Amino acid sequence: MTQAPDRAAFEARLRQIGEERYHDKHPFHHLLHSGGCTPDQVRAWVINRYYYQSRIPMKDAAFLSRVSDPALRRSWRRRIEDHDGTEAGTGGIHRWLKLAEGVGLDPDYVSSAQGVLPATRFAVDAYVRFVRDEPMLPAVASSLTELFAPKIHKDRIAGLLEHYDFANAETISYFQHRLNEAPRDVAFGLGWVLDHAVTQADQDAAANALIFKTEVLWSQLDALHSAYVDPGRIPPGAWQPGEGLL
């Protein structure tokens, strides 16, 4: 068996992927965080990002269905609780729908996923299938975009509060909670990947899984920018400004 390079070098390789590929560098996020988005562009982002948020616990449940290690299951199921909550009216999905209300959208319309861009649906569904079907190591490694999430949440909180009237403690509560949840999740996930990537082939598979996940996130913003910013070509079936409002 070919031995992998050392643990520190592998972790540095994973972090470099984020430096080069994480979607905080996408022009749409720069527009959003600087106050440059119109109300309808913000609404389009909320609608499409909801689809991603709503599929995260489904992805995690599919992953858990094939985990035989109780310790891994105990740690991982907290991710489902973070998004679904432990009772009605709690959890990340509920908080995201409060953001939807804040920007003037009917939460029932948003949760129906009627207006989701085709490319968003394709990318997110591909991610769910990846985690469901790929070997355990790349499935876990694909979650490691959380390594890079705290910075984007901090930038988003500051940018939304500075530039948009809808931003307040309730509407941005999703991002505030993720500042605590994401580091906890990634501490476990990163340690697990570093422990289990014992060959060069393992490390390559984990790195490629993380690259795949950055592409899932980036492609969603590409579709959003194309449909609602430039050239503004909204595909058939996607949300049209004026639809689904309160």
Highlighted features:
246 residues; mainly alpha; 69% helix
What is the topological layout?
Elements: H1 7-21, H2 27-33, H3 39-64, H4 70-84, H5 92-102, H6 107-112, H7 118-133, H8 136-141, H9 149-163, H10 173-196, H11 200-228
Helix pairs in contact: 1-11, 3-4, 3-5, 3-7, 3-11, 5-10, 7-11, 9-10
Count of helices? Answer: 11
Q: Which percent range fits the helix content? A: 55-70%
In round numbers, the mean pLDDT is 96
N to C succession of SSEs: HHHHHHHHHHH
Describe the structure.
- By secondary structure, the protein is mainly α.
- 69% of the residues lie in helices and 0% in strands.
- It contains eleven helices and no strands.
- The longest helix has 29 residues, at 200-228.
- It is globular and about 55 Å long.
- The N and C termini lie far apart (60 Å).
